[in-house]
Amino acid sequence: MRILLIASTFTSLTQRAFTELRAHGHTVAVAPADDAEALRDAVDRHEPRLLVATEPRAVIPRDVHTRHTCLAVHPGPPGDRSPSSLDRALQEGEQHWGVTVFQVEEEAGAGAVWAAEGFAVPPGVGKSDLYRGEVADAAVKAVLTAVDRFASGARPPLPHPAPPVPARPYLTQSERRIDWEAQGTESVLRTLRAADSQPGVCDELLGEEWFLYGGYAEDRLRGTPGRILATRAGGICRATADGAVWIPELRRRRTPDGHAAVKLPATLALGDRLPDVPHLPAPLELPEHRRTWSDIRYAEEGDVGFVRFRFPGGAMSTVQCRRLLSAWRYARSRPTSVIVLGSERDIFSHGIHLNVIEAAADPAEESWTTVNAMNDLVAAVLATTDRLVVAAVPGNAAAGGVMLALAADEVWCRSGAVLNPHYRLMGLYGSEYWTYTLPRRVGADAANSLMAEAAPVGAVRARELGLVDRVVAASPQEFAHAVTRMAVELADEGDLRVRIGAKKAARERDESARPLEAYRAHELRRMRAAFFAPDAPYHALRSAFVHKQPAGDTAARCEELSRLPQLNAHIAAREPVCQI
Q1: Strand partners, 6
Q2: Contact predicate 488/301, CB 8 Å
Q3: Are residues 261 and 320 in the same domain?
Q4: Residues 483 and 544 in one domain
Q5: pLDDT tens, 487-511?
Q6: What is the CATH number for 122?
Q7: Cβ–Cβ under 8 Å, residues 357 and 542
Q8: Which of 179, 274, 397, 427 could form a disulfide with 538 if both were Cys (CB 3.0 to 4.6 A apart)?
Q9: Which of 46, 60, 47, 193 is nearest to 129 (CA)?
Q10: Does one domain contain both 430 and 318?
Q11: Which residues of the chain have pLDDT under 50?
């Protein structure tokens, strides 16, 4: 069936819907939600049988939704109409929530329900993580159900709940305001998590107004409520009425020069305003009972070492790359036969930290330093020939983050993940040894196609192409347990030493044919030219991305995605999906 997706930006949920609908055999085009004329043109050009808006706030012109069946995805159960649905669910401590696919009608949110899916809200999960995980899973399932119902005509849409739940208004900053002297840790955490990563919680800190992002409990530090008690790994620890919380990121509400502020690691954002407080080391290993925050951790299970990292938004600064490299070297010093690299849930990595680069005194130099730090990390993974390496990818990955995963011997990807193995949309050639690892996995022709098309790749499609070795059909909350079990089983396999020996020999052959340093030098020559040329597109594209501004012609990009071939010819036979 011909389906037109409508979205103002190509968000994670839109990418999921795009890849899943194509995987189910539908012909999918994309149209911008914020340009009525471009949307009308897309409808005339593609002649879709069905339109699906992946953003509930998308405004579809009356002449479009009265002539065509238009469905919209809302991150709330049937009857919920709140524009801050997920925010309120998390701030009020809901344990179960849902997603609704309804028909667009004249009255907002009043259309008939075509499908709905519920899900449990895991404890301690922030809004952005929940949205990319449980919400996206439920939304895709509901969209596929709605599309099947529409295509078959066998089951009419469900009536709208009557009486409808009264629409609760947008959750304002006044409702999000934290009273540090009165609110305990759990209450503060609910407020912070309900605003992550948009819009943040506006708060007064050190005499200025800041937006706070992220929240993690601290079980030992105590102090005057609201005060900064310590720093760690770029984050700050603030006292609550009965404990303390870690806040990884901040953004100034206003800047003296009037320029838009960007979200940054908290200590970097505060700069010389940061008070004289203890800087605590980020512990790699923690007992199970501890409640504190560290963005990189190490653990062992049997003969397997787990290097777990989780950076806000999946972005990796120079400092974070170097710290992760240190953790990798520590893992290499341990007597294990398998190392698993990845996060337990949500984003794997999106590559270099564009916000930190944008805020630097010299963005070109910071870009160069960061990409070299990322290359050092990937090189260390590629050079690990004395044991087997697994990349565990629970969520989305892009650009250098995909290449970090491809440096491993096996890539295990959650079924809901979306990969963007390209750099073109940021005006970059690419680095992180992609000219070695990507063709090694998918072949030269497919590697060139992936780079040129700059399109998202769903997990199952990634397995067909050879980007991924195993697709793990687990929920976001179950993924880490599934990976642990699979890794322990891998370490117990009788032929593991043979596999490690064969891996080492293959790396030595590849090094003799062309050293890794040659790949790196070739890529970095192209990257340096993009970084240090003042008129290079990278600078404008980076700035637009960081400040959430349109980067080029949105309608043209939507049309480019719409013209992608339905099937890629470069497919390798892979093992089936792991059902967990």
Answers
A1: 31, 53
A2: yes
A3: no
A4: yes
A5: 999 999 999 999 999 999 999 999 9
A6: 3.40.50.170
A7: yes
A8: 427
A9: 193
A10: yes
A11: 163-164, 567-580
